[in-house]
Write a structure and sequence with these properties.
By secondary structure, this protein is an all-alpha fold. It has helices at 2-19, 22-28, 30-42, 46-62, 70-85, 89-107, 112-127, 131-167, 173-210, 214-231, 237-252, 256-273, 279-294, 298-316, 321-336, 340-358, 366-378, 382-411. The protein folds into three domains: 1-108; 112-231, no CATH class; 233-294, no CATH class. It contains 18 helices and no strands.
């Protein structure tokens, strides 16, 4: 009954909107129109939502509200959201741009809300293949980031000079205290803004990385790191993520030499903040070890994996999933060096852990089984190697049969 009642009310509302003149719509009031539009949007009644939001715009027009009136920006935002949900991206872009202009008019080009909206629009442009517009806004964000970092340094200098002056005059002891409080308060406000901009630049950098626009991605990641380093303590976990993002970009573009020191910093922060039960720790060990391997520093990679294995066993127990991952990674390194007798027991351990995690017939076991068979075969244990290889092929056959059955069922 409730659903029927809602449908009836929605139908009445649509009929009312269809029959209303502009003056009658204005009489309804902006807030009621916008609220009705948002309610309709939440219920996926897109036609009602669109008419409501467009009617709300007509109210602003009839009142000749200035562009700085927040009602314009609110409604542009609603319409942009509606059209993006509906996949009408040119219309969504049009209203996102209008929202930005309205916010700029009301708040100024460098207000944090406006900067946040610039980031949102930049991500929209990248995602919907409008590179010229995206690159222009990215340039504005990077320039803004550079300006505020410069202002930060200037403010720090001024605060330090004032502090020195007042500290040298005992009669101003209360002023020194007040100055310190003001500085701490200002730093907290600035830190929040910096971290929001850093997060925006990180997400833009990730989108550029997906598009293989590595130079722009690098600029975004670097500026995000600058902002975080200014806003956070040196050992903060958010810095570890920032270093990792830039390192992953360098690895994707074949610049492992540049990635390595960043991964060291990221791992150092992570290992100090988290215990080895957390997956981020071994993930960062593995990333750093891979740069060692790529650069031919095999001894360093081996040492890192051995240390990780020891610490994971100590902190997590002998059958933790990361023991399997670390054992498999170290075994792969040994296979690369033809150290088959050392690789085999590691792969046996990794296999046992993966069986416990995924089950004895899981396709997840195939890469480990293949490597284990190779280590046994080249270590002159051909009979055992054959049994392991047969098992891998059996799982492959089962997985292939399951996929074929699934595809046939889907086609049927």
């Amino acid at each position: 009954m409730v659903c029927v009642r809602n449908l009836i009310l929605t139908g009445i509302f649509v009929a009312i909107l269809n029959g209303m003149s502009a003056s009658a719509l204005a009489a309804m009031g902006f807030e009621s129109l916008r609220a009705e539009g948002e309610k309709a949007l939440s219920q996926n009644n897109y036609g009602v939502a669109e008419r409501s939001f467009q009617a709300a715009l007509k109210v602003c027009e009839s009142e000749k509200a200035p562009l700085s009136d927040s009602r314009w920006a609110q409604t542009y935002k609603n319409l942009a959201n509606l059209y993006e949900i509906r996949g009408q991206f040119p219309k969504a872009e049009f209203y996102l741009e209008k929202e930005l202009r309205s916010r700029e008019k009301a708040l100024g080009a460098e207000d944090p809300q406006v900067i946040s909206l610039v980031g949102k629009l930049t991500r929209f442009y990248i995602s919907h293949n409008t590179p010229a517009k995206a690159d222009r806004l990215t340039g504005l964000l990077l320039a803004y980031g550079e300006r505020i970092m410069k202002k930060e340094k200037e403010l720090d200098v001024h605060f330090n000079e004032l502090n020195k002056f007042f500290a040298s005059h005992s009669e101003y002891s209360q002023t020194v205290k007040k100055l310190k409080e003001l500085k701490e308060s200002a730093e907290k406000i600035r830190a929040d803004d910096h971290l929001e901009l850093a997060a925006s630049l990180d997400s833009i950098g990730a989108l550029y990385k997906e598009k293989n626009k590595f130079e722009l991605a690098e600029s975004c990641y670097k500026r995000a790191i600058d902002l975080r380093e200014k806003a956070l303590s040196p050992g903060h976990m958010a810095l570890a993520f920032g270093y990792e993002h830039l390192a992953s970009l360098y690895m994707a573009s074949g610049k492992n030499q540049l990635a390595q020191p960043l991964l060291k910093q990221s791992l150092d922060i992570t290992s100090k903040n988290l215990d080895f039960k957390r997956p981020e720790v071994f993930s960062r060990v593995d990333s750093l070890a891979k740069t060692y391997i790529t650069l031919g520093q095999l001894n360093e990679a081996e040492t890192l994996y051995k240390q990780a294995l020891s610490l994971i066993k100590e902190n997590c127990g002998a059958y933790h999933k990361d023991i399997g991952a670390a054992s498999s990674s170290l075994a792969s390194l040994y296979l690369r060096q033809a150290r088959y007798s050392e690789a085999a027991p590691l792969l046996k351990s990794a296999l046992a852990i993966s069986e416990g995690q995924y089950g004895p017939q899981s396709a997840q076991l195939i890469p480990i089984l293949d490597q284990y068979a190779e280590a046994l075969e080249k270590g002159s244990k051909t009979g055992e190697a054959a049994r392991i290889r047969q098992r891998a092929n059996s799982i492959r056959g089962n997985a292939s049969a399951c996929n074929t059955t699934a595809n046939s069922s889907a086609n049927f």
